[in-house]
Design brief:
little secondary structure
Length: 78
C-alpha cells in the first residue's frame, strides 16, 4: 500500500539464527520450549551454489527471487 517492500524492513522482536543443519531440529525444539519461542520455525536453508541468490517460497507455492537491496534502508523509528 505504501510502496515499501516488507522483505527489507527491520522487524522488531524477530530473530534469525543460522545453525548447522544437523543441529537445526534440536535448536528449534529448545526455542519452542520457551513461552516466547512457541512460534519458532525453520524457514530455509543455506546452500553452496556458484552465484549468491536468495529465493522465497510463497504461500501459494511459487518461488520468488529476493533482490539485493540497493540504496538506503528505512531507519528504525523506535
Amino acid at each position: 500500500m505504501l510502496g515499501v517492500d516488507v522483505i527489507n524492513l527491520a522487524n522488531e522482536g524477530c530473530l534469525c539464527l543460522f545453525v548447522e543443519s544437523d543441529s537445526a531440529e534440536e535448536v528449534l525444539k529448545l526455542l519452542q520450549a520457551h513461552p516466547l519461542g512457541q512460534k519458532a520455525a525453520i524457514i530455509g536453508e543455506v546452500l553452496t551454489i556458484p552465484q549468491a541468490k536468495v529465493s522465497m517460497l510463497e504461500q501459494d507455492g511459487t518461488v520468488s527471487t529476493i533482490e539485493e537491496l540497493y540504496g538506503a534502508e528505512l531507519p528504525r523509528l523506535c
